Amino acid sequence: MALIVVGLNHRTAPLTLREQFAVAQARVPATLHLLRQEHIADEAVILSTCNRVEFYIATALAPGLAFDELRAFLVHCARYRDPLTDEIYRYSEPRSLEHLFRVACGIDSMVLGETEILGQLKQAYELALQHGHTGKVLNQAFQKAFHIAKAVRTQTSIQRGSISVASVAVDLAEKIFNSLSGREVIIVGAGDTGEKAARALLSRGARGVLVANRSPERARALALELGGRAVLFEEWIAECQRVDIAITTAAAPHYLLDRTRLEPVMRARRHRPLLLVDIAVPRNIDPEVHAADDVYLYNIDDLQGIADDALKRRQAEIGHCEAIIRDKARSLLRSPSCCGLPLTPAPAL
Q1: For 146-165, what is each residue's pLDDT tens digit?
Q2: Cis ω for the linkage preceding 342 (within 30 of 0)
Q3: Residue 349 placed within a domain
Q4: pLDDT, tens digit, for every residue of 232-256?
Q5: Which of 22, 64, 138, 279 has the fewest CB atoms lying closer than 10 Å?
């Protein structure tokens, strides 16, 4: 049984392509079931974030056949019909293990060394585990990945001064407005990224935070934690008349905001600038909104420039981290005991 990885990320595919392949969390269990039902995988985990969509499988198929079957499955699920070349990558052992470890350590992230991806990876593993789609191979591999991520944090400086995607968005807001003092913010979507962005904004001087989410209970709970106010999801666009910054992270199959909906909001603002940061994949905001006067729209790929500044300061640590990852991957492949880690699933979160 071999570990195979097939996917695409921010390095190989633009946002316009990644959003077409994104797998909503609600669809993940059914997709995993179908993947195993079609005998492509014996075990499987799907990681779908704003920067990557990756399928990790354990399979008895030969690597070449597994690659072809998994790639075809990925394309079919996305209903994608255009030709693909280098956008999709594929790895077999030991590179598949090394890739998993690099992802867990934040080495493969847009923001080098960020820790948010580790939580997302744990959630993806836990979801597959709860639905019975993991076994000996993936349990070993993912448990080892979490163990290595901790070792890299303690043995290297790769995360020194590191920042998450959420805090990069906050840096962008600070550059647009010079100061966040007194600014009003609305977070659309009450997930982890939105919560982190809200906390970072408040810590840098924002006056207050509004929270809109399809679940009113979740919106109220997060607003209470942040000392802010919950608003109805249907009313978040109207609330943009008074806020300075809107950060959208909601899961939605179509645009929540387009130029037609935004124009009356901007008329009411009377030339006050509005910063829109669309972290969601698929995107929540129509790119055409950027053409409106006094509107500044940035998506997840636009954050790359800010991330590059932090990247330069941590570049020297990559070699040290890669050496740890290569050593641990080869050790895992040689040892059935997974370097002392248990073979039975352990809580990932």
Answers
A1: 999 988 888 887 766 545 67
A2: no
A3: no
A4: 999 999 999 999 999 999 989 899 9
A5: 64
